[in-house]
């Protein structure tokens, strides 16, 4: 066909073929709703990815957990059914023991301590553990500190958790944590928590301010008690085979795009924490600080013992984090 030949002739044809050969469209998973810092940052990641690879790689994001629960999505990225996801390290623990160090209650003193650990040797060891299981951590996102909330009463001491049914993420460490407080843990997917709180299947749950707000949990569990027992980082994680098949230039572009999206996410996170807190407080949420967190720390100690007995190799990593000033 002369028209095709003349329009797509010579160099133009090889250019098109070359582009087609390198064009990849990735599918990405995210659990959060529109406007949430992670959602905005993952969309930004997609934009930067296309820009920095000159369109060789594009990203189609699926927000709101529509492609499945977080434990399933982690497996899908490991298996390569999905290229990428923004994951909390909590639900990764059952598969990747190194990631479980961040799920030990009170292992980080505060968010700054978590940043120092994740940006240093501890973060590297955690990344290595993830890479050995097929996941490359490109950048770390913030997820603040998680505190208890429930529909019954303020929590001030472990005794207040006695007999309470508390939703946790799928990870035995969290179930152990609730059991040590005398409560009944109920592991379930994020998407099921609202209905479970509303119908009394559970009395409470635990999360940061933005998730407490964005999910509407504050409407059905109006007591928020500032325990800050978990500070769990999140990752932008890619399937290792997908990443390793890229050219060095593409790998740099992907990494840079993820790091820049993380800078944006951390900024948005800081603002959103205050906004979410103000928003739920304005609706009448009853908030309390916990004057002395030591009884919680003491009660949760057996969680460390059980974990380290089953994973003795991880002990140095726990010490590394704890000794970091
Ligand atoms: C949020 C986190 C989600 C998910 C959720 C949960 O804070 O960003 O990835 O882990 O908590 O409690 O399931």
From TrEMBL:
GO BP: any one term: transmembrane transport
Signal peptide (UniProt feature, chain positions): 1-23
Localization annotation: Periplasm
Any matching Pfam family: DctP
GO molecular function: carbohydrate binding
This protein's UniProt keywords: Periplasm, Receptor, Signal
InterPro entries per record: DctP_fam, TRAP_DctP, TRAP_DctP_sf
Keyword Transit peptide assigned: no
CDD domains linked to this entry: PBP2_TRAP_SBP_like_3 (cd13671)
TM segment ranges: none
Major localization class: periplasm
GO (cellular component) term, any one: outer membrane-bounded periplasmic space
PANTHER family in the cross-refs: DICARBOXYLATE-BINDING PERIPLASMIC PROTEIN, PTHR33376
Protein name: Tripartite ATP-independent transporter DctP family solute receptor
Lineage: Bacteria, Pseudomonadati, Pseudomonadota, Alphaproteobacteria, Rhodobacterales
